Amino acid sequence: MPSARTLVVGVFVLVLVASVAMVIYFLPKCTFTKEGCHKGNATMELIYPISTNGELFPWTELRLPAKVRPVHYDLLIHPNLTDMTFQGKVSITVEIAEDTKTVVLHAADMKVTRAMFQDKEIKILEYKPWQQIAIKLPEDLKKGKSYVLTLEYDANLSTSYDGFYNSSYNDKTGATRVLAATQFEPLGARKAFPCFDEPAFKATFLIKIKRDPGYISLSNMPRNKTTKLPDGLFQDEFEKSVIMSTYLVAFVVANETQFTSTGTNVSGTLVSVYSVQEKDQIKYALETGAKLLEFYNTFFGIKYPLNKLDLVAIPDFLAGAMENWGLITFRETTLLVVNESSILDRQLVTSVIAHELAHQWFGNLVTMKWWNDLWLNEGFATYMQYTSITKVFPDLKIGDEFLSTRFRAQASDALNSSHPVSTAVTTPEQVEEMFDSVSYEKGASILHMLNSVLSEDKFRKGIIAYLNTYNSKNAGSEDLWNSLSQVAGQSFSVAEMMKTWTQQKGFPLVTVRRNGTRVRLTQEHFLLTPDPTNSTATPVSDALWHIPLTYVNDSCSLDPGCKQVMFLTEKTMTLDIPEGVAWLKFNFKNEGFYIVHYAEGWRELTDALKGKPAVLTPEDRASLINNIFALSRLGKVSFRQVINLLGYIRKETETAPVMEALLQLDHIYRLLEKKQDLPLIARMQVFIFNHFGELMDSQVWEEGASVSQENLRSSLLELACNYNRENCTENAKRIFDKWVASNRTERIPGDLRRVVYSVGAQTEPGWLTLLEAYRYSRVEAEKRKILQALASSQAVMHIVWLMKAALEGSLVQTQELPIIIDTICRNFPGHLYAWDFVKENWDEITKKFPLGSFSLQRIITSTTSQFSSKAHLLEVQNFFGSLKEKGAQLRSVREATETIKLNMRWMDDNRETLWLWL
Question: According to its UniProt record, which cofactors does this protein need (predicted)?
Answer without folding.
Answer: Zn(2+)
